[in-house]
Amino acid sequence: MLDKLREECAIIGTSLKCEEAAGVVYNGLLALQHRGQEGAGIALSYNQSIVLEKDVGLVNEVLTEKVLAKLPKAKTAIGHARYSTTGSNTIKNVQPFLTEYLTGRIATAHNGNITNAKQVRSMLEKEGLDFSATSDSEVISSLIAFNIISCKNLLKGVIEASKILCGAFSLVLMTGDKKLVAVRDPHGFRPLCIGKNEYGIAVASESCALDSCGFDFVRDVIPGEVIIIENGEIIHSSVELVAKKQGLCIFEYVYFARPDSVIDNLSVYEARFNMGRMLAKEHPIDADVVCGVPDSGLEAAMGYAYESGLPLVSGFVKNRYIGRSFIYPSQLQREHAVKIKLNPLRANIEGKSIVLVDDSIVRGTTSAKIISSLRSINAKQVHMRISSPPFRHTCHFGTDIDNEQNLIANQISIEEICKRIGADSLGFISVEGLKEACNKCSLPFCTGCFNNDYGTDCVEMSKFQLEE
Ligand code: 5GP
Ligand code: MG
């Protein structure tokens, strides 16, 4: 049985003229950690084979000094950091996936969500292939290996396999003989970019990883493009897959990506700042100060303050040292848990009327807790402003939304949400306003989670898969 996975992950791959691939992938994954904190892994091409190291945990918990010291010196490597919904986080689903086939091995790292994974998996099972994980990414790896054998050619095999896949896939894969392949699905749902330096090439989910590993940004991978890299050089690139409609997930700019990344020609920071400005135009309010919810609401708060002329202040101090292992020891402490992670700054809040900016309301629990923590130190008024439109529909392509019933905006009206979270007023950016804030992006957007407009026929396949 395949789990109903929604994965928002980080991928990176590098092909170098020197044997420093492990270091590049490790540093790159650290820069991409925000995209997934549940599992991490690295695969290195070594001695005509592939060495794999992966486990559940953060990048530096999995790739410890001891583990890194054991890794072979390699010119080519790929890595993955995984985000998953609860229940599916077993070691079996951690990537990269290693697939062995008659004439070799490939390792694959995937970001996105394949909507026809179930059908592809049954097709491959009929051909006699076995599966050990419950993730759609394992299906991709096997499908590619299967097609490499039947086409007797790496490029043709990757292209034929990619044509069968439906949904979101940004991929890096590596062969035992040091070839690195990068693929972006024809819709361009998930980001993928290429960097270069004197030692070779790196491909990563976000440009912040290229920056931190010393690669100059070259360009984004084009939707539908297949690239092969060997010995630090691009040896092939062509656009092989065409979609009826392209659409980058606009939520990459709202929440997923790091503000110092540039995706498809638009700076994530600039996009968020513009969202804040747009919010101030669409939902102005007379207040004393503006503050953002750390971390993903901060840039939109700056934009709101800039546009409205209201002073921007820090509303909270975030404890940076709480790991994922943080536990709530007693009922008393559980009730104050939000303040352990995010303590409101009394000097800026007490007696003030506040515009509180955050990136999204999904289930509504976060906003309710944060507003009640502001009330507990006597905020006079709290006006909530959200830099994404109401989240009403499920995402078929990689966001963590298991069920529409859990989306508060799918269930109740904006006025009711305002009451439920305890705000004095509530304003969401409009879909048009959000698109306008992101208008420097070179791709059109998928805004399906906001307005049900996915602009692709992949959705029907997904419904079929989920209902079965
Ligand atoms: P909720 O309304 O479900 O309590 O949470 C909203 C908060 O979750 C927002 O502050 C936002 O920053 C964060 N968020 C939005 N989308 C996602 C997601 O896909 N994954 C995770 N881990 N957090 C998210
Ligand atoms: Mg948040």
Q: How would you concisely characterize the structure shown here?
A:
The model is unreliable at 1-6 and 463-468 (pLDDT under 50).
Write a structural description.
- With 468 residues, the chain is an alpha+beta fold.
- The chain has two domains: 10-243, Glutamine Phosphoribosylpyrophosphate, subunit 1, domain 1 (4-Layer Sandwich), CATH 3.60.20.10; 266-451, Rossmann fold.
- It is built from 19 helices and 23 strands.
- The strands form six sheets. The chain has a seven-stranded antiparallel sheet with strand order 3-2-4-1-10-9-11.
- A hairpin with a 2-residue loop joins strand 12 (225-230) and strand 13.
- Helix 4 (117-126) crosses helix 5, helix 9 (268-282) crosses helix 10 and helix 9 crosses helix 17 (431-437).
- The longest helix has 16 residues, at 136-151.
- The protein starts with 9 loop residues before the first strand and ends with a helix.
- Mean pLDDT is 91; it is low at 1-6 and 463-468.
- Bound molecules: guanosine-5'-monophosphate (5GP) and magnesium ion.
- Magnesium ion binds next to loops.
- The poorly predicted ranges are 1-6, 463-468
CATH architecture name of the largest domain: 4-Layer Sandwich
The fraction of residues assigned to DSSP E strands is: 15-25%
- The largest sheet has its strands arranged as 3-2-4-1-10-9-11
The distinct ligands, each listed once, are:
guanosine-5'-monophosphate, magnesium ion
CATH class of the largest domain: Alpha Beta
Q: With helices defined by DSSP (H or I, 4 residues minimum), what is the helix count?
A: 19
Distance between the termini: 10 Å
**Main structural class:** alpha+beta
Question: Rg to the nearest angstrom?
Answer: 22 Å
Range of helix content = 25-40%
Mind summarizing the main beta sheet?
7 strands, antiparallel
